Amino acid sequence: MSGKLPIKLSNQLSLPIINAPMFLVSSPDMVIESCRNGIIGTFPLLNARTSELLENWMIRISKELKQVQEEDSTAKIAPWGVNLIVHRTNKRFEEDLELIKKYEPPVVITSLGNPNDVAKIVHSYGGLVFSDVISLNHARKAAKTGIDGLILVCSGAGGHGGTLNPFAFLKAVKEFWDGITILAGAISTGEEILAAKILGADLVYMGTRFIATEESSASEDYRQMLIDSTLEDLIYTDAISGIKGNYLLPSLQKAGFNKENLKKKEVDLSFSESKAKAWKDIWSAGQGVGNIKKVSTIKEIIEDLRAEYNIALTKNESLKV
């Protein structure tokens, strides 16, 4: 693992992957299985529809991962993390922040707002704070807030993705940022993980690759649509949340949207109960969707990724000139 990562974190990982937090998809089962298999498992705090449910999730994740480590002290148990929406429309921000203080998730990912106050709280108990960014301006601002890592959300990422090429974005950010760098956007194979490392990323963000898993909260129809889809089935639009993102066009059409008449919405990231219901059948995916061929377990996917990574590493050695 990269020298930029804290030694403890580096020793906990079997692959340099964060299983990205996905709205209405990431579950406690996904987080636990990811961590048990040596990658960072995360979930959006708002996936738990109430603060009471969220507290139960955090208790369960902490307890089960601690138990696994106690049963096998040599096992690589990666840290778990949560995603906190810092945007003003998140009405549960203060409540969720209190639970972060109480249960101390080792990794906190902030989105859509200034992470400065969150970073102070997380650092007080020794945790790490990563912030996702989609532009150089956003990256520069976030880099000044005391966070530990920047998640560069590039073109092709699922959900709220950016438009920048990863080669150019990573190089430009490295000119002013010397902290942990996480690359996101259409990364779904071991070869692509290695490519990100060669570019200088410390970790990669992978979401779409883990949606069609037995541990995810995705519906059977969602999983099947991922298996049936290619990158030609994606549409990049701000008609869903007011922020540009990649979605599976067939799911939008089934929900009554017309491709030719999609219009930008006001930004609304409150994720209320009514909004969750409205989003239930609107599904996102990244441009790596074509690599999903079947429903698997998280363990199986990580084993495949590790094998692909090692094969790519061997090939890379043979390319020396």
From TrEMBL:
Q: What is this protein called?
A: Probable nitronate monooxygenase
General function of this protein = Nitronate monooxygenase that uses molecular oxygen to catalyze the oxidative denitrification of alkyl nitronates. Acts on propionate 3-nitronate (P3N), the presumed physiological substrate. Probably functions in the detoxification of P3N, a metabolic poison produced by plants and fungi as a defense mechanism.
- Keyword DNA damage present in the record's keywords: the answer is no
Q: Which domain of life is it from?
A: Bacteria
Alphabetical keyword list: Dioxygenase, Flavoprotein, FMN, Monooxygenase, Oxidoreductase
User: What's the source species for this entry?
Assistant: Fictibacillus arsenicus
- Kindly list the GO molecular function terms attached to this UniProt entry: dioxygenase activity; nitronate monooxygenase activity
This protein's record includes keyword Transferase = no
Family classification:
Belongs to the nitronate monooxygenase family. NMO class I subfamily.
- Pfam entry (one): NMO
